[in-house]
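Action item from last week, closing it out:
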Amino acid sequence: MFAMQLGLSQYRVLLLIALLGCCCAAMAAGKPPETPEEMHREIIANMPLVEGKLADYVDQVGQRIVRHSDQAGDSFTFTVIDNPDINAFALPDGYVYIHRGLIGYLNSEAQLAAVLAHEIGHVTAGHHARQKRAQTGSKFVAGLLAILTRSMEVGQASALWGASMVSGYGRDMELEADEIGSRYLYKSGYDPQAMIEVITMLKDHERLEKKRALESGREPQTYHGLFATHPRNDQRLREVVSNAGSTPNDMKVEHNVTPFRIATDGMVWGENVATRRLPENVYLNEELAFMITFPKGWQFSEQPPLVNAHNDTGDVKISVTAMNRTRVSPDQFIKQQLGIPLLKQSEPLAQFRLQGHTGLIPGTQGQSDQRLALIYYGYRAFVFRGTLERSADQSLGNRQLMDIIGSFRPVSKHSLQSAETKNIHYVKATKNSTFALLAQHLKLGQYGEDELRIINNYYPVGEPKPGEWIKIIR
């Protein structure tokens, strides 16, 4: 439920409702996505995606690995999901996905290639078909959407889903994907040791997340399946990486730090405010800072006087207007300012710390009564006028009108204005650069120094060298 402020977490809850609604609608229609192609369409239809130079770059790196894989010549699709979590996964038939959040923690093209090669390895080895407890398409998509929204309500479900995927592959399959991926890296000209570098970073992030969770009294959100079964110093992994191929002294393996820096400079860090989407039945007025939720099936439009809405049959309608409030009580405002001397079923309203009044204006000449409500919010008086045609279900219509009025709630302008998207930028360190000072200057919060250290491969100690390119968040 919304209180006086609306932050990103509340947006996630609303987004979750919308996304799961799409999935449930598909299943209710008897057409759950089952094939990899259908699952892919479901994902790209409901998830915000990264496009442009970063997506092109990821595809370029992925296709390079495919050309040196056991399925060279086959079609592979690489998709960057605009989500801040650390995750990557693959579907059969060459559908590979990586979250923007994971890319932000990497430091070279070789590391990006290592992540993609691992997922390609799952595909070429046919691990999905070999899973003993493979999930149905509907369960897969529902679980996936829950993870991508990161709602607190689905935290446990997503953790179970991630654990199911990892245990479904099993330790041996994960190690096989590492072995295959390392071989693909070597054949593509990348250093296979990048696989170890990625795992080290993931373990550093997991360590920080556990620290955060312990101090805030919650469960750690480390439900990514990527390399999740590996301990930090995994001897078996190091052996399979080494067996991928020993690089001759005269052969220069590629890390491609500069192309990676160019492709990721300016990419979004954390939540992308631009991709926040509200369910279709929620109206948000950012200028006047309020929200209204309409019943499913209702249509609304933002037009003078403020917003108009009606049900699917058009026989129940409501309009919302705003006036300057006065110092009198809401019921007296109705009498003095609106010129309505008498209301049936007159009663006060109190919701979200707001005061108001409602009642029915008696119908004339055979017309139905009209629902009227007034709510004081700030310096304004919001007036709701609801009408029902004679043909409408009067009981249902009145309940819906009262639900609409009761859903009116304030939105903190501060929360809307402060929800700004942050981006990754690269700067050269000076002799005075320290991660602590940078985090303080950039106002990155309690764990800002730790985050800067992890994304620059300096966790938990060490400082950047003068002239070194480093990532900052601003």
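Closing note: Residues 155-187 form the longest helix (33 residues).
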